[in-house]
């Protein structure tokens, strides 16, 4: 079985939590795009793990893989491995594999991301982790691959080849070109390369073999559908393709092998960084949702902008991903709000729309049209069963399902593993 899980909104939908929940039934969990711009939270008992690179299946028996479409900062990988070791969780080559072709985030990519963002008149609000510049180099065929990181000779030869051009680029952005050949940074990367040499693998081969043997494989996305570099709200997007089809292309698995595609959908909507968010709640209500949902970035700590559920954006996410089921998260956060609003369409330049306009500048002009539903006061965090939910919460979920026309499989009412139940 091959399952793809993606975020249906602007990221931070709770992918980490749901992947951890489902991973017990999967032999392999693989990340297919993005880098340490992602922050996936997994809570087990009192322990909270914030994962930026390692797939969220790590805490179970699954083998975890980082595919060639990921951009990998080796320092962050080392920090994550150390973090797990401190918690008594052993990460070794048997547990974790990284594709030989995975692109490496170099210190100069991070520098360039920061310099470019600072000089942009209209900011994107990137995470400043060097993601965009690492992908630029991949597409320009000027990247370091994992295979080069782990081989000192190849690494130094590649640096020799690329350094003059990178130094020019940094200087052109107003930075100090010395970062490119900084001896301490080079030594550190060589040291990290040695540490990770045994982790190198062929992810496509491993996954296809596992599927041939009847094993179960899950592809875990980072970011969210509307941050997709091709179909998202450009320019306020990330630099990789975040939708389900990207899992096939990036992991090297044919689309004929996909069995199901699960959407992670928050019961409202959030966005970090710049870009349109038609249902955004500024003022007291927005602050209340932000506080109740703990909506502060896992990676950067920035406050997430919050808004009501946006059906037009969700309809587009369903079209882009071909979802077969939906896991609905953070329903508990809506407790105490009355009414609860669902944005069912927009008015845009005098027109009524039920599907988002294609261009970001037009989406920014859209005003939401709402359907109001009565709220509930009961705390949901201990609820263990769909029928146990207060009537108005049941009605809200059923209405969302009716509008989305895709079945909801799981409902999450808190960050813990146990705070999830199946909606039969
Ligand atoms: P991801 O990037 O999609 O994995 O999501 P993040 O981990 O960045 O953000 C989701 C946050 O919400 C994390 O702090 C989770 O622990 C938390 N969370 C997940 N599901 C629920 C839920 O159902 N209710 C509440 N209150 N918190 C949740
Ligand atoms: P997870 O996987 C939410 C956003 C950034 C910025 C834009 C571009 O935790 O859901 P980048 O550094 O990628 O060039 O920034 O994308 N962004 C995310 N927002 N969740 C994420 O990941 C994100 N990763 C990037 O805030 O607006
Ligand atoms: Mg996140």
CATH class of the largest domain, named: Alpha Beta
Residue fraction in strands: 15-25%
Basic shape: globular
Overall mean pLDDT = 97
**Total number of β-strand segments?**
20
What report would you give on this structure?
By secondary structure, the chain is α/β, with parallel strands linked by helices. The protein folds into three domains: 2-98 and 200-260, Adenylosuccinate Synthetase, Chain A, domain 1, CATH 3.40.440; 103-196, Adenylosuccinate Synthetase, subunit A, domain 2; 265-422, Adenylosuccinate Synthetase, subunit A, domain 3 (Adenylosuccinate Synthetase, Chain A, domain 3, Alpha-Beta Complex), CATH 3.90.170. It is 33% helix and 20% strand. The chain has helices at 15-22, 74-86, 107-119, 131-139, 146-149, 152-172, 183-196, 203-212, 244-251, 284-292, 311-321, 360-363, 391-404, and strands at 2-7, 28-31, 40-44, 47-51, 63-66, 71-72, 96-99, 103-104, 200-201, 217-220, 260-266, 269-271, 305-307, 309-310, 325-329, 340-348, 351-353, 367-373, 408-412, 420-422. Helix 3 (107-119) crosses helix 4. The strands form five sheets. A ten-stranded mixed beta sheet has the order 9-7-5-2-10-1-11-15-19-20, with helices on both faces. The chain has 13 helices and 20 strands. The structure holds guanosine-5'-diphosphate, 6-O-phosphoryl inosine monophosphate and magnesium ion. Residues 7, 11-17, 39-41, 43, 293-294, 298, 329-330, 332-333, 412-415 line the site of guanosine-5'-diphosphate (GDP). 6-O-phosphoryl inosine monophosphate binds at residues 7, 10-12, 37-40, 124-127, 129, 131-132, 222-224, 227, 236, 238-239, 272-273, 298.
């Amino acid at each position: 079985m091959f399952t793809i899980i993606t975020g249906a909104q602007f990221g931070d939908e709770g992918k980490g939590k749901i992947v951890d929940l489902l991973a017990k039934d999967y032999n392999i969990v693989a990340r297919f795009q993005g880098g340490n711009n992602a922050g996936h939270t997994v809570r087990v008992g009192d322990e909270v793990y914030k994962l930026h690179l390692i797939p969220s299946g790590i805490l179970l028996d699954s083998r975890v893989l980082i595919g060639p479409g990921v951009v990998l900062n080796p320092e962050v990988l080392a920090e994550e491995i150390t973090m797990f070791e401190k918690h008594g969780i052993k990460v070794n080559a048997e547990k974790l594999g990284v594709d030989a072709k995975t692109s490496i985030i170099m210190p100069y990519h991070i520098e360039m991301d920061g310099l470019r963002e600072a000089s942009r008149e209209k900011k994107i609000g990137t995470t400043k982790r060097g993601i965009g510049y690492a992908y630029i180099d991949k597409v320009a065929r000027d990247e370091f691959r994992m295979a080069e990181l782990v081989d000192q000779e190849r690494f130094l030869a590649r640096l020799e080849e690329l350094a003059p051009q990178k130094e020019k680029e940094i200087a052109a952005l107003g930075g100090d070109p010395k970062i490119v050949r900084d001896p301490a940074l080079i030594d550190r990367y060589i040291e990290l390369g040695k540490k990770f040499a045994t982790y190198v693998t062929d992810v496509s081969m491993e996954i296809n073999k596992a599927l041939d043997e009847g094993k179960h494989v899950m592809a875990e996305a980072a970011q969210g559908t509307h941050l997709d570099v091709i179909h998202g709200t450009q320019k306020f997007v990330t630099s990789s393709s975040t939708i389900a089809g990207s899992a096939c292309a990036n992991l090297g698995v044919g689309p004929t092998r996909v069995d199901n595609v699960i959407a992670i959908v928050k019961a409202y909507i959030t966005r970090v960084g710049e870009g349109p968010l038609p249902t955004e709640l500024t003022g007291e209500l927005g602050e209340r949702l932000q506080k109740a949902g703990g909506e502060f970035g896992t990676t950067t700590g920035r406050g997430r902008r919050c808004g009501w559920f946006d059906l037009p954006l969700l309809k587009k996410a369903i079209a882009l991903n071909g979802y077969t089921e939906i896991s609905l998260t953070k329903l508990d956060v809506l407790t105490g709000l009355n009414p609860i609003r669902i944005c069912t369409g927009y008015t845009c330049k005098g027109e009524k729309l039920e599907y988002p306009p294609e261009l970001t500048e037009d989406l920014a002009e859209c005003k939401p049209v709402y359907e109001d539903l009565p709220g509930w006061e009961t705390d949901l965090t201990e609820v263990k069963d769909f029928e146990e939910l207060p009537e108005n919460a049941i009605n809200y979920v059923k209405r969302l399902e009716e509008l989305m026309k895709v079945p909801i499989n799981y409902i999450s009412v808190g960050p813990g593993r146990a705070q999830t139940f199946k909606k039969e």
